[in-house]
Amino acid sequence: MRLQNIVLSLTVCAGLFATEKTIQLPQPDTKGGKPLMEAITLRRTNRAYTGATISRQDLSDILYAAWGVNATDPRVLHTIPTAMNAQDPVIYVALPEGAYKYIPENNTLELVLAEDIRTRLDRRGTDMFAKSAAVVLIASNLDKLKRVQDKGVQIQFAHMHAGCISQDIYLVCAAKGLGTCVVYGINKENATTLLKLPENTIPLYGQPIGVMAK
Ligand SMILES: Cc1cc2nc3c(=O)[nH]c(=O)nc-3n(C[C@H](O)[C@H](O)[C@H](O)COP(=O)(O)O)c2cc1C
């Protein structure tokens, strides 16, 4: 009897902590949050988080703002502009339960690594990554910018796109009362290897998101 209880407990625990291979995010709430001008006025960098998690709805809304699909008629278009409609951005998100690639067309997260890599994305070992609820990693697939011959301009465009993504994340966080900080000082080697970035996909910025410590 006691053994049965132990087996039952282990099964329940395994179910609770199992890392999902695919996370179907809730539909983004495209009508929610504070008015745009209020969110712009509230936008701020915040680096002190409590370590609490955020809801899947909040995660979905943040990723939608970052790089979601907001038009499919007739082309798939995104919430941020890209030069020549290159659509080079690639978004990953490190959660306590694992690291995922964001698939905007399906509004899903696809598991890349069933490990908590949040702090390993941080070059400086700050609390900001450790106590975040999620770390968004903004990358660029430079192959999609091949029409631009000058590599320097490719990189310039990639950073411009990352800037748009980052600001959208800032604004959604401001609208929801969540904290965030765009970080150049990430560990790019770890990001490349742990997230298995394909050749020519380069990591650009990390953006921890967290419940603000008061
Ligand atoms: C391109 C860029 C890179 C940044 N990199 C870092 C960083 O590595 N670490 C950090 O703590 N903050 C970083 N920040 C956040 C800035 O320090 C912050 O935006 C600035 O202090 C102004 O504060 P505010 O965003 O609240 O207006 C970065 C901001 C930008 C735009």
Structure description:
This protein is α+β, with helices and mostly antiparallel strands and 214 residues long. The chain has one domain (21-210): NADH Oxidase (3-Layer(aba) Sandwich), CATH 3.40.109. 34% of the residues lie in helices and 22% in strands. Helix 2 (36-42) packs across helix 5 (151-176) and helix 3 packs antiparallel against helix 5 (151-176). The chain is globular. The model is unreliable at 11-16 (pLDDT under 50). Bound molecules: flavin mononucleotide. The site of flavin mononucleotide has 8 residues, from loops.
Describe the protein's topology:
Layout: H1 2-17, E1 22-24, H2 36-42, H3 56-67, E2 69-71, E3 77-78, E4 89-95, E5 98-103, E6 108-113, H4 127-130, E7 134-141, H5 151-176, E8 179-180, H6 188-194, E9 201-210
Antiparallel strand pairs: 1-6, 2-3, 4-5, 4-7, 5-6, 7-9, 8-9
Helix pairs in contact: 2-5, 3-5
The protein binds flavin mononucleotide.
- In CATH, the architecture is 3-Layer(aba) Sandwich
Q: What is the approximate shape?
A: globular
What number is the mean pLDDT?
A: 93
CATH first level: which class?
Alpha Beta
Tally of structural domains: 1
* Radius of gyration of CA atoms, rounded to a whole number: 18 Å
> What's the tally of helices?
6
Low-confidence stretches: 11-16
Q: What is the number of E strands?
A: 9
H/E element string? HEHHEEEEEHEHEHE
- CATH-defined superfamily: NADH Oxidase
Structural class, by secondary structure, is alpha+beta
At CATH level 3, the topology is NADH Oxidase
| Ligands bound, unique | flavin mononucleotide
Distance between the termini: 48 Å
User: In percent terms, what proportion of residues is strand?
Assistant: 15-25%
Biggest pleated sheet: 7 strands, antiparallel
